[in-house]
Specification:
The chain has 7 helices and 7 strands; from the N terminus they run E-H-E-H-E-H-E-H-E-H-E-H-H-E. It has 249 residues and is an alpha/beta fold.
């Protein structure tokens, strides 16, 4: 299978979870892959596990100095990109009464500002006819309590899929979004919950998924491959919801 043969892809947050699974899938489909992450040890581990035509860049999506440096770092690896998967993101949950400015800014800085300016910086490197993929969330469509900030960041990304697709028509660069439902990724280990609380949350969420399970990162990676490949050349400004039926049934 070589749906991405001779293509070069950059994946932000490609050292774990959905980003890592997508890097693996893209490599198997013939692409050269560049992954970014904010932890060098984690990047080194990912590179060793992935092997093949994979390169790493230490870069924190919430730090605009890192984002501004990204174009030059990419050019040292490849003169151009065909695919950019904006995957880096964080999720923290709290009722509105408990939300602080730090809680708000941290998520918007990574999920929205970092995403937006990463695209801006890399746009000159993206080949005409290329693909930008945004990793959003079904939370953008749901009224889930305690998720007001996180959900707002993901809804903002959905609007970018449409507005940037319209703005980039002259270059035939299509911008699309993937909205995963619950997926087994390290994000659950970063919620600051005790083990029993996490298990309780997982059970509660799983009970709302018609398929009766969490998604696997590889399942989301295959959706990303569709958007990244020439199979989607007539698809732009749209969203694929991959949630096991959580909000669609």
């Amino acid at each position: 299978m070589n749906r991405l043969q001779n293509k070069t892809a950059l994946i932000t947050g490609g050292n774990s979870g959905i980003g890592f699974a997508t890097a693996k899938e893209f490599l198997e489909q013939g692409a050269t892959v560049i992954i970014t992450g904010r932890n060098q040890a984690s990047l080194d581990e990912a590179k060793q596990a992935l092997q093949g035509k994979v390169f790493t860049i230490l870069s924190n999506s919430s730090n605009l100095n890192d984002v501004r440096a990204l174009r030059k770092q990419v050019e040292e690896i490849s003169p151009a990109l065909d695919i950019v998967f904006i995957n880096a993101g964080i999720g923290k949950f709290a009722p509105i009464e408990a939300v602080t400015e730090e809680h708000y800014d941290e998520q918007f800085n990574v999920n929205v500002k970092g995403a937006y300016f990463t695209i801006q910086q890399l746009l000159p490197l993206i080949n005409d006819g290329g693909s930008i993929i945004l990793n959003t969330s079904v939370n953008a469509h749901m009224g889930m309590a305690n998720s007001s900030v996180y959900s707002a960041t993901k809804a903002a990304l959905l609007t970018l899929a449409r507005t940037l697709s319209a703005e980039l028509l002259h270059r035939r660069i299509r911008v699309n979004a993937i909205s995963p439902g619950p997926v087994t990724t390290p994000i659950f280990d970063k919620l600051g919950m005790a083990a029993d609380e996490k298990e309780g949350l997982k059970t509660a969420v799983q009970s709302k998924v018609p398929l009766g399970r969490f998604g696997d990162p590889a399942e989301i990676a295959r959706v990303a491959t569709f958007f990244a490949s020439d199979d989607s050349t007539f698809v732009l400004g749209t969203e694929i919801i991959a949630d096991g039926g959580m909000i669609t049934l």
